[in-house]
Amino acid sequence: MPLDENNRTVYEDPRIVRAYQQASSISPAELAIFEPLTERLRAAALLDIGIGAGRTTAYLGAKVSRYVGVDYSRALVEAARTRHPGADIQWCDARQMHAFADGSFDVANFSFNGIDYVDHPDRLQILGEVRRVLRPGGVWTFSSHNRDYARRGLLPWQGRFRPGRVMARKSLEAIRAHKNWRHLRGEQVETTDFALVNDEAHGYSMLTYYVTPHEQVRQLAASGFGDVLVYDQWGSPLEGSSPASMWLHYVSRRL
């Protein structure tokens, strides 16, 4: 099954939708990025991409003049609309955002590593589409898995021990994870700067894009973004990389 079809199927799964419906917290890195922008955001139009079941909708929607949330999973869009009645939430694929004219937004956000679930060419296409819908000088923020993360690519039986789980449930999850891993391990890709990894996301059911900070900054520059800032997953500014941080947050300006 092609990467896009495989990953998109996961996001339509009712079990996964239920998990996203339970997510509500704003991460330390998101707070570190958005709180200093509070004054700038008051008059801003913000595009929130890959919103899942609307985890960031209330927080970001309260900060901006105009909020639009989008996701490419129809099941998650319906869950987000139910959770946030009255919010402008639309079905949209970030690779082809034809619903929005050039320069429609002041800020674009793609949270919780959502950009990592398409292949390399599609990722670059997303960067191009985000630049198109942003006004000159607009802010682009997203998180992405760190290619330098020390525990990247653990096998299903090498994960973190969780003694609080019911053992029968854990056994079933382990069996499912091992089956998924056997199915997807041959689809993994390794390069010097990025990798497509069958990691532990949703029981090893997906292929996830991991990228070095150096390569991600290069991709941003090539796509028309500058003034890039990088934060670890706890919200601390980074120079270089951090093998302890599973994902990194990037903030840049549309040139």
TrEMBL record:
One of the protein's GO biological processes: methylation
Keywords: Methyltransferase, Transferase
Pfam family name, one: Methyltransf_25
Domain Methyltransferase, first and last residues per copy: 47-138
Domain of life: Bacteria
Range of residues in the leader sequence: none
SUPFAM superfamilies in the record: S-adenosyl-L-methionine-dependent methyltransferases
GO molecular function: methyltransferase activity
UniProt cross-references to InterPro entries, sorted A to Z: Methyltransf_25, Methyltransf_Superfamily, SAM-dependent_MTases_sf
PANTHER family membership: METHYLTRANSFERASE, N6-ADENOSINE-METHYLTRANSFERASE TMT1A
Protein's UniProt name: Class I SAM-dependent methyltransferase
